[in-house]
Amino acid sequence: MAKGIWVVVEQRDLQIRKVSLELLSQGRKIADETGESLVAVILGQGIEGLAQTVSANGADKVILVEDEKLAEYTTGAYTSVLNKLIRKEEPQVVLTGNTAVGKDLFPRLAQRLGVGLASDCTGIEVDSSSFMVFKRPIYAGKAFEFVSSTVRPILATIRPNTFALGTPDAGRTAEVVKETADIDAGDLRAILKEVAIAASKRPELTEANIIVSGGRGMKGPENYVILEALADVIGAAVGASRAAVDAGWKEQKFQVGQTGKTVSPTLYIACGISGAIQHLAGMGSSKFIVAINKDPEANIFNVADYGIVGDLFDVVPILTEEFKKIVG
Amino acid sequence: MDEIKEVSLEMKDYIVSSGAETLSWCMQCGLCTNLCPWRLVPGEISEAFNIRKMQRLGQLGLEGFEDENVLFACATCGMCLVNCPRKVEIIDNVRSMRNTTVAAGFLPANLRPIAGSLHANGNPWSGAHEKRAEWQEGLNIPAFSDDTEYLLYVCCTSCFDTRSQKIAKSIVNLLQKAGVSFGVLTAEENCCGETIRKLGDEELFQKLAESNIKLFNGKGVKKIITTSPHCLYAFKKDYPELGGNYEVVHYAELLGDLLKQGKISFSTELAKKVTFHDPCYLGRHNQVYDPQRELLKAVPGVEFVELGRNKEKSLCCAGGGGRVWAEAPMGERFGELRITDAVDKQADILVTACPYCIAMLDDACAGLEKGDVLKVMEMSELLNASL
Amino acid sequence: MNIVVLIKQTFDTEAKIVLDANGKIDANGVNLIINPYDEYAIEEGIRLKEKLGGEVTVVTLGGARAQEAVRTALAMGVDKGVVVSDPAIDTSDDWANVEIIAKAVAQIPFDIILSGRIAIDDGASQTAVRLAEALSVPSVSSVIKLEATGDQLVATREIDGGTELIEVALPAVITAQKGLNEPRYPSVAGIMKAKKKPLKTLTLADLGLSAGDLAPKMVVTKMTLPDPRKAGIRIPGEAADAAKELAKLLHEEAKVL
């Protein structure tokens, strides 16, 4: 009989990813609702100190797998360890964040276990017949599908920011179990040579979840720093309208619109952009559009979900501070 | 040593079979290139694109015409056709050469969302189809029926672009004031397909045209007024081969007639120096030159002045042939030359009668920062202000 | 070098999503394209062939129109195409699809298998990595730079906030991320040649499989469309108040932060 809700906690340099804590917080709620136990699984080297953090965030039990071969994430070693652990303990559900690691690890793990995987989920519903139903966006968010499985365990990767962070309870304690890493030689064929973390690498425009874009209202290339500051707080790409590109303030590769790049991020923040039809057609499918413009008649307001009629030089810096408070 | 180039008659036949029926008529005199507006601007596209050479590459089945800066540079302005001693259908040849790659699934990346939107929404502006007629709210425009004489077909651009919607609204008001019997089927219409056909996507053009023809024929449409010269072209020249036969006029032609008949007049004085940019698709492609001028001159106070390059010699705004979605750097845009032409004539208002021209000229005027001395207006807007 | 590129035909990025009477996505009249990330994989496959010699075979699992996608790949410079088409794949899940593809790929000699990192329709991002597991070969996902020698690959893979450099011996699976290359436009000569290139169509039976072998692990219980876009609002007040309110709305109402 399968039991337990597992969260594979992702850590990099012994820092737990925010999405893992979100999953522990939500996992706690589901565990209480269903009477299951919540188990946090951490792989790495020197991770013992993380057990307290995950128990404070809701885990009933913590499984630590320490090994120098697990210090950095590699597909093979992590799959090897988790596959054996899951086969031994037989959890109901195994969750992790839909991060670069989750997206790489879970498909392989699911195939090795011969089970289903709900990837990039934005919702979990507890269900009496299949235990959990996962909501996931398809067609770039133009539709949703709900998936479930009777095969155990169900694997799922959850999109970051889907669930709120809970308040850690430092007084909570969890059972801590240490497992040894048993890694098959065949799983070490890909060798990680180097990890390069960019200090602030903004995403590419068409790949970004959030875009902050500036137009003629930016008044000059030197003013883009305020947009960049905003973008870096929320991990956004910085774009520009054609007018800003024509004025020479931004390179053409940053141009958003039909004559530049067609984008459809989750959030598009247009600052000082009036909204020529080619621009609107090139970003109109964004999930949420914010317009900040001095001109109340600007076309951009016709497509904006939230509009502020005001001077972007007043609004943007305050917005940056507010975003800092939210994303922490 | 240079690479040996292989002549391929098979490729030539393929291009001809895609519709370039007059390709072999070209005798390479080069008069076309001499008139091509790309010769008036510097830059990478200008250097890559030579319309005479493009025809030659096609004739010989030589590779090289597929380069994006060659294949998709032509704005289909039709200037080249004026001088051609062999009456080569140069634009048809360009369209067919585009079709050889587009039909195989290779529209350039920047044009894919345009084609995608035409497939999904029936317009190139990524506007939701159900919002096509939203601009008509409160205007009291009747639906086309047996009781209305004309169908007013409004260009996608003027349905979805808030700037361009002003054109549609002005035309509606002018037609209503002149007592024209017209109705609309806007909500059910799709893009006329003129531009996507020029871009070489024949299949998509046919899909759009067939849906419109089915709609028009089903509703008993006989006469159409278009707001854009591009739609005028499609309905007059492209649709008959698919079974769509209508009496089609651009709104300027109809208003010109109504002016002569005394059914419309202008009273509010507009003491401005006004000039007119002839849209390629109204002028060279459809030979409509006079009504616009008569209408503008009928506005009290207007001092009409011709641009240096006018009528048959009008310089393209670069918005045709799909170039309205292409990117040329500042300094390489024909529209800028047009703004300069108007400023040189010390005109206060540069008038034109095409939504693409408006988009290109507005953009050029803002880019050149000439907004303080020159205003770009669509003719219907100016006429409407003087009613 | 034998290169296999796994591609998928997807809805056009601009396609409107409509549910049919059965609550399923309606594909009627929708324009289809090659999944954009798979185009990077095709391009990389052709480049590897140009550099190291060998043959590129495109494999796809799909419906009646999937051949068009393969013809497009052939026009770009791929040598051969394989389409697996069967009514059973309408209801198959990621696991089952991989079982099918693994059988098809097993018939083709391969040193490297390339695919897009994600398909823009289901957004699952599972097939290629699952396939690597099914074939017992290593994989590197989300690759933005690839260097190949005869028996080894050095891949730069995108991770959250940085990159990893991974060395892997062949055979291996690589998934392509945007930035890996710029897919080519074919010459007309290439398009003409593509019409004569071999394209094989296989059914499940040809692969020795039956629908019964492919009972899905994951089932779709329902599909829904997002709530219609609400009318936009103007946030009143001075800059400071409006900005605060905006941040709050984005966090609590839109939930995008």
Sheet with the most strands of chain B?
4 strands, parallel
CATH topology of the largest domain in chain B: Rossmann fold
How is the largest sheet of chain A built, in terms of strand order?
7-11-6-1-4-5-12
CATH architecture of the largest domain in chain A: 3-Layer(aba) Sandwich
Mean pLDDT reading of chain B: 96
Please report the distance between the alpha carbons of the first and last residues of chain B: 70 Å
CATH class of the largest domain in chain B: Alpha Beta
Instruction: Provide the helix percentage of chain A.
Output: 25-40%
Q: What's the β-strand tally of chain B?
A: 8
| Shape verdict of chain B | globular
* Gyration radius over CA of chain B: 21 Å
The residue ranges of chain B in which pLDDT falls below 50 over 5 or more consecutive positions are none
Q: Determine the CATH topology of the largest domain in chain A.
A: Rossmann fold
Q: Determine and state the CATH class of the largest domain in chain A.
A: Alpha Beta
The number of helical elements of chain A comes to 8
Structural commentary:
The complex is a heterotrimer of chains A (328), B (387) and C (257). Chain A has 328 residues and is an alpha/beta fold. Chain A has two domains: 184 residues, HUPs (Rossmann fold); 123 residues, TPP-binding domain (Rossmann fold, 3-Layer(aba) Sandwich), CATH 3.40.50.1220. Chain A has eight helices and 18 strands. The two termini of chain A are 40 Å apart. In chain A, strands 7-11-6-1-4-5-12 form a seven-stranded parallel sheet, with helices on both faces. Chain A has a five-stranded parallel sheet with strand order 15-14-16-17-18. In chain A, strands 8-9-10 form a three-stranded antiparallel sheet, with no helix packed on it. In chain A, helix 3 packs across helix 4 and helix 5 runs parallel beside helix 8. Chain B is α/β, with parallel strands linked by helices. Chain B has three domains: 94 residues, Alpha-helical ferredoxin (Fumarate Reductase Iron-sulfur Protein, Chain B, domain 2, Orthogonal Bundle); 147 residues, Rossmann fold; 121 residues, 3-Layer(aba) Sandwich (Rossmann fold), CATH 3.40.50. Chain B contains 18 helices and eight strands. A four-stranded parallel sheet of chain B has the order 2-1-3-4. Chain B has a four-stranded parallel sheet with strand order 6-5-7-8, with helices on both faces. In chain B, helix 1 packs across helix 7, helix 10 crosses helix 18 and helix 14 packs across helix 15. The longest helix of chain B has 18 residues. The relative contact order of chain C is 0.17. Chain C contains six helices and 13 strands. With 257 residues, chain C is α/β, with parallel strands linked by helices. In chain C, 28% of the residues lie in helices and 28% in strands. Chain C folds into two domains: 213 residues, HUPs (Rossmann fold), CATH 3.40.50; 31 residues, no CATH class. Chains A and C meet through helix 3, helix 4, strand 7, strand 9 and strand 10 of A and helix 3, helix 4, strand 7, strand 8 and strand 9 of C. Strand 10 of chain A pairs antiparallel with strand 12 of chain C, so a sheet runs across the interface.
